[in-house]
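Throughout our pipeline, every protein is held as a single compact record rather than as scattered files. The record that follows is passed on verbatim for readers who wish to inspect the format:
___
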Amino acid sequence: MKVFHFRLERALRLRRAQMQAAEAKLKDLLGEELRIRESLATIAEERLEACCYVQREKTTNPIEMRALSAYLTGLQARAAKLQKILASKLEIIRDQRREILHLERNESLLSKLRDKKFADWQNETDREIETIAQEAWLASRGKQKILDEA
């Protein structure tokens, strides 16, 4: 009996490695997206805190108002920049997910082919074992007949 050997095993391992690398890259991208969203949430909180501070103060002078205005303008600029980065990151994430789907299909095709080849090999091996068992049984029956006749 021969040992099962799948000719495309290296290609299957390569595709699995590519899948793992692509999934790791997606995980990193999703982490970056989360950090950007957290930064945007922090900016929104800072803006709200600044506005609440001014409302709580009984006296606000023009210098404080100008400082608040400049601070809010800076926050708005940072938020706009982060929004652009987030939009770009979301596009990259979308592309990476498409790549993963493509790699999954390729890996799945090879995996299914391997499973089919293994099932065929298993059936062939089972038939071979059955044939050997039948031949052994017939041979033992033949020896028994010879011994009985002697």
About this structure: Residues 62-149 form the longest helix (88 residues). The mean pLDDT is 91. Helices lie at 9-56, 62-149.
